[in-house]
């Protein structure tokens, strides 16, 4: 399995258990690893034979700007399913970080791994 990785993708979304926390979009950070077979793209040198990471990032930003989540876990599952279904990835490992949410805490977050 080959992997595309996208590090420190900054995204705006509404996220948090208290309603006031979801009132205004906040920045979250995503680290994404996408499993895919690159063998055809290695031979053809054509973007159509791989996953266009620019489209992935654009689609994630679009959907997270439209949605609101209470839990980091639900947001992570949403992003994983989007990548698996819309981009036909074989697997996704996603780290979601919510920086500076508590005093004295750099970030909190989760890591999720999903595969088809």
From TrEMBL:
Catalyzes the conversion of 7,8-dihydroneopterin to 6-hydroxymethyl-7,8-dihydropterin. It comes from Methylophilus luteus. This is 7,8-dihydroneopterin aldolase. It is an enzyme of class 4 (lyase). InterPro entries: Dihydroneopterin_aldolase, FolB_dom, GTP-CH-I_C/QueF. The gene is folB. Pathway: Cofactor biosynthesis; tetrahydrofolate biosynthesis; 2-amino-4-hydroxy-6-hydroxymethyl-7,8-dihydropteridine diphosphate from 7,8-dihydroneopterin triphosphate: step 3/4. Residues 4-114 form the Dihydroneopterin aldolase/epimerase domain. PANTHER family: DIHYDRONEOPTERIN ALDOLASE 1-RELATED. Keywords: Folate biosynthesis, Lyase. The lineage of its organism: Bacteria, Pseudomonadati, Pseudomonadota, Betaproteobacteria, Nitrosomonadales. Belongs to the DHNA family. Its EC number is 4.1.2.25. It catalyses: 7,8-dihydroneopterin = 6-hydroxymethyl-7,8-dihydropterin + glycolaldehyde. GO terms for molecular function: dihydroneopterin aldolase activity. It comes from the Bacteria.
């Amino acid at each position: 399995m080959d992997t595309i990785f996208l590090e420190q993708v900054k995204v705006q979304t509404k996220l948090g258990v208290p309603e006031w926390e979801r009132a205004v979009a906040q920045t979250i950070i995503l680290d994404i690893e996408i499993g895919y077979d690159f063998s055809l793209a290695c031979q053809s040198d054509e973007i159509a034979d791989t996953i266009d990471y620019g489209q992935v990032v654009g689609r994630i930003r679009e959907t997270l700007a439209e949605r609101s989540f209470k839990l980091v876990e639900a947001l992570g599952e949403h992003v994983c399913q989007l990548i698996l279904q819309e981009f036909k990835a074989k697997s996704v490992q996603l780290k979601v970080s919510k920086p500076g949410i508590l005093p004295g805490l750099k970030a909190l977050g989760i890591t999720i791994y999903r595969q088809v």
